[in-house]
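Input structure tokens:
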């Protein structure tokens, strides 16, 4: 029990004094996860909206595929990306392996099914009465889409928050693609794993506190958005 209390004390000391190694891992995590979410939202929101809004051949199969990929292990994504960007892969000449852009690519792929599937589900779950009401106004297709997006704005932000939570806590992609290089590609999760194995319990706890704080903020945002959506209704 003493080593746990001692670790907690040292962990808070590292955070208060802004330990460079700890801050570096936090910085890499926030950069990679934020960039990957931005890219995945740009790609995933339109795809998810089309999947939930329009009827077309193969729609159910694509929805099933996106739902299935929700549970894809991060190490599998890391393995696939590694195969493509390693020296022997088709994109090896771009030298993306063990770099921050490489991590961003992997995490973007990880977040895409989440955003596509949850966005499609949100659009499908929209009340039919609202569709009929909007259609009665004689809106164009573009205006209809804009109106639906506005009505679902809280749900879509919740989708982004959920995807961010998945990305920021992953370890497989960051370890396999980033290589856990100190000062460059070491993230919070990979640093926790490494430092704990080395016996550096304090830094592991410090980074764990940061990770839990991020998770708490994300869940608080989700709670706030759901509460606001209920009030709006």
């Amino acid at each position: 029990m003493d080593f746990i209390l001692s670790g907690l004390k040292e962990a808070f000391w590292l955070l208060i004094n802004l330990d460079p190694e700890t801050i570096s891992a936090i910085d890499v995590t926030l950069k990679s996860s934020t960039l990957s979410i931005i890219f995945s939202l740009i790609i995933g929101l339109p795809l998810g909206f089309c999947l939930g809004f329009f009827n077309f051949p193969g729609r159910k199969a694509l929805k099933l595929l996106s739902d299935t990929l929700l549970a894809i292990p991060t190490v599998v994504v890391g393995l696939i990306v590694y195969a493509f960007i390693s020296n022997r892969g088709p994109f090896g000449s771009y030298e993306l392996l063990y770099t921050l852009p490489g991590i961003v690519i992997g995490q973007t792929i990880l977040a895409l099914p989440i955003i596509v599937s949850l966005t499609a589900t949100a659009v499908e779950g929209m009340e039919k009465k609202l569709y009929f009401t909007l259609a009665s106004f004689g809106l164009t297709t573009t205006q209809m889409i804009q109106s639906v997006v506005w009505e679902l704005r809280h749900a879509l932000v919740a989708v982004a928050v959920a995807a961010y939570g998945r990305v920021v806590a992953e370890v497989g992609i960051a370890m396999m693609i980033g290589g856990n290089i100190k000062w460059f590609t070491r993230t919070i999760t990979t640093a926790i794993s490494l430092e704990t194995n080395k016996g550096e319990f304090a830094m592991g706890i410090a980074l764990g506190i940061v990770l839990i704080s991020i998770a708490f903020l994300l869940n608080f945002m989700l709670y706030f958005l759901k509460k606001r959506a209920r009030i709006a209704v």
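The two ends are 50 Å apart (CA to CA). The domain at 23-129+155-232 is CATH 1.10.3720.10 (MetI-like fold).
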